[in-house]
Specification:
alpha/beta, Arc Repressor Mutant, subunit A
Amino acid sequence: MNSGYIIEDHTLAQQWLGDVLADAFPGINVSVAATIEEANTLLDKGFPDIALVDLNLPDGSGIDIITRINCESPETITIVATIYDDDDHLFPALRAGAKGYILKEQRKEDISRLLQGIINGEPPLSPGISHRLLNYFSSMNAPIQVKKDHGLTKRELEVLSVIAQGHSLNEVASILEVSRNTTATHVKNIYSKLNITSRAEAALVASKMGIIDT
């Protein structure tokens, strides 16, 4: 990640999120906007690699910025950074194109770790948000197509049970005492065999298989 925008109106939060980006991606060039108007001015000049967007801004909703970025620069990774963890904020943001949703109540190092996971294709979702998504899809009884025997090896089942609990690749590797590269390969195989693309889906499958409790 070479460039990042922070769309946030509170000065302390701007500084805090700037530190988070710097920790996650050393050397990143960060620009800040405090309003929708300022954010649009930044976007008129160009789009960043990553954008952290607050939802409640003085002159409107951050969802408007998320929508614009998603339409004009879909490769930009747009992440909500907010205090709101309810469905009324979460799902409109995701529908607008947000690729992650983090809660500012988390520790700085935890959010940095979530952002670093982007490099490996891991969506940055705070644990509470992952659980909310899981409950949402569970309530819909969303069908997930898998083979009757799932086609997973014993080790892949072990990896699935750990990632479904929200652990990062590094944490999975440590827990199972294998290398990070080996863990990444297992996760890739699991996603392919189960025809899924996210940790939320992995957690749902693991729950349906009786591997974890929800």
